[in-house]
Amino acid sequence: MIAPLLRSAALGLALAGPALAADPSLDLVGPLSDYKIFVAENTAQLVTDAEAFAAAIKAGDLDRAKALFAPTRTSYERVEPIAELFSDLDVSIDARADDYEKAEQDPGFTGFHRIEYGLWSEGTTKGLEGHADRLLADIRELDGRITALTFPPEVVVGGAAVLMEEVAATKISGEENRYSRTDLWDFDANFEGAEKIYTLFRPLIAEDEADFVAKVDGNFQAVKDVLAKYETPEGGFVSYEELSDTDRNILSAKVNTLAEDLATLRGKLGLG
Amino acid sequence: MTHTPSRAGLGLAVAAAAMLAVTGGAAFWYATQRNAAANPEARADMTVTVGAETCDPQDITVPGGNRSFQIVNASDRPIEWEILNGVMVVAERENIAPGFRQTLTVQLAPGEYAITCGLLSNPRGTLHVTPSDEAMVAASEVTLRKFLGPLSEYRVYLVMESARAVKAAEALRDAIAAGDLAAAQAAWKAARIPYRHIEPLASRLADLENAIDPNAAYLAGQEDDPGFTGYHRLEYGLFGQNSTEGLGPVADRLVADLADLSGRLKGMTLDPALLIALPGAMAGQLATAHVPVGENRHAGNDLEELQASLDGIGKLTGLLRPVLAGVDPALEGDIAAAQDKAEQDLAGLRQGGAWPSYDQVPGDKRQALAGSLAALQTALDRMQPVIGIN
Question: Which domains are assigned to chain B?
Answer without folding.
Answer: 7-29+143-381 (1.20.1420.20), 39-139 (2.60.40.420)
